[in-house]
Amino acid sequence: MRWNIWLSPEQVLPDLITKINGEPMDPSTAVSMSPTVSLIGFAIVIFLLLFLIAKWRWHVFFALLIPILLFGILPGVQQTNFIDAFESGFGNTLGSIGVVIVLGSIIAEALKHTGAIQVITRSMVNLIGENRMPLALTLTGFIIGVAIFSDVAFVILNPLVHSAAKSMGVGIAVMSTGLVGALQLTHAIVPPTPGPLAAAALLGADIGKTIIFGSIACLFGSLSCWLWGVYVAGPRIKTEASDEFDGSNFDDDPEHLPSTLSSYTPIVIPIILIGAQSVVSLIFDEGHILRTVFSYLGWPVMALSVGVWLAYRNIKSEDAREKAKDEWVEAALRTSAMILVVTGLGGSLSAILRGTPAVDFIAMMFTDYGLPTILLPFVIGIIGNLITGSTTVGVITAASLSAPMLGSLGLSPEAAMLAGASGSVIIKYVNSSYFWVCTSLTKLSVADAVFSYGGATLVGGIVSFAVVCSMWGLGWI
């Protein structure tokens, strides 16, 4: 629903509608004033949001809430519709993905504690070969970044990164750069990771299509990160692996680890179910038995519930079973809380802006100047991440601000979501917590980390966006 929160010029400026001599003015002379005020308000909201985070270091929850509340007192805003738009935007957004985000976080906890990440990594090394460890780790990051927060995954894999660098006789940047980039790309682009999942909900994107085409873009982007690390950044950085991880591997206690198949299924099966639902809906007519079955099995809540069950089947010890009942769920809820409230406020902001003339003005500016409309969410994603340092906030900001303009821009929800997500990883530097996690664990200098890890996400984001643009140009998304 589009709430019209903006009063008409006749309601806002009654004195201007009538000339001094009492003759009525043409209302069209006043129409331009309302879009101007709404456009100024739009700009103030964005500036204040970024200022509160970057300058005053406010939490993103208040940094989003305060500008939204101030927007509600601008001249011309109809407060009743404003409140309705705020509440419906918040509720509708969380109603579609709130449970899914929590379920995804529970899967991540289970993968971390059951050792599935170690098994996936070892299987990828066996497939690619010990002598191609940087590529194996990059592809591992491409896979597990879908389910695990990138900083958590890197902490778990860090001992193997050092050990592999030692055994191959290469610098730590050669071994780690592709992994750092790949983890960040899938974390930003491919659902059911919380950030892209929330963005897809805000834009109304088909999650199955987003997974399929986002994975394609992300694979090319991840490979470009590997190339950057092995052939460009890595050879120029002399930092060696740390001796404290010498000989570290994931085979110390293999009897307590799940099988390779069991390790992959909590990630792969939900993705297959969600993707299959989108494919089946394109092939079969409404009412077909397969379409009915997969509309339920591919419903993200159902698909990720299956993923939780599969992840819990990997529990080996009685102690872990007890923790899985309570501690893992509580940890997942703590992880999900910030994403949920930020996503809800993003939905409110999107619903509010959709009811103003500003969004049409911005969209017309792009079309009038002949700019590719897909650049708009991409640039917003870059700015959101640049200022806040958070990929998740960058993805959600791009989706929140792009959603009201989709109709005017002529963009599909999937194209807008993937473009904004690609932009949100472009710049990773000292204001990013993920940057500091990777830098401190690999013991690179800040300058070397900016060149290696920042360069990887820059190249990976640009390549991913180029692939998204190609798919958009071909009419795939």
Written description of the protein model:
By secondary structure, this protein is mainly alpha-helical. It has one domain. The chain contains 24 helices and no strands. Helix 8 packs antiparallel against helix 9 and helix 13 crosses helix 14. The protein is globular. The relative contact order is 0.14.
Can you summarize this structure?
The protein has one domain. The protein has 24 helices and no strands.
> How big is the Rg?
24 Å
Q: Helix fraction?
A: over 70%
End-to-end Cα distance: 24 Å
Query: How many structural domains are formed by the residues?
Result: 1
Task: Extract low-pLDDT stretches.
Answer: 12-33
Mean pLDDT: 81
| % residues in beta strands | under 5%
Please tell me what the overall shape is.
globular
Total of helices: 24
The structure class reads: mainly alpha
Number of separate strands: 0
N-to-C SSE string, H for helix and E for strand? HHHHHHHHHHHHHHHHHHHHHHHH
Task: Walk me through the topology.
Elements: H1 9-12, H2 14-17, H3 28-31, H4 33-54, H5 60-71, H6 79-114, H7 116-128, H8 133-144, H9 150-168, H10 172-189, H11 194-203, H12 207-233, H13 260-283, H14 289-297, H15 300-312, H16 318-325, H17 327-354, H18 358-368, H19 375-388, H20 391-402, H21 406-409, H22 413-423, H23 433-442, H24 446-473
Helix pairs in contact: 4-5, 4-18, 5-17, 6-11, 6-15, 6-17, 7-8, 7-13, 8-9, 8-10, 8-12, 9-10, 9-23, 10-12, 10-24, 11-17, 11-20, 11-22, 12-13, 12-24, 13-14, 13-15, 17-20, 19-20, 19-22, 20-22, 22-24
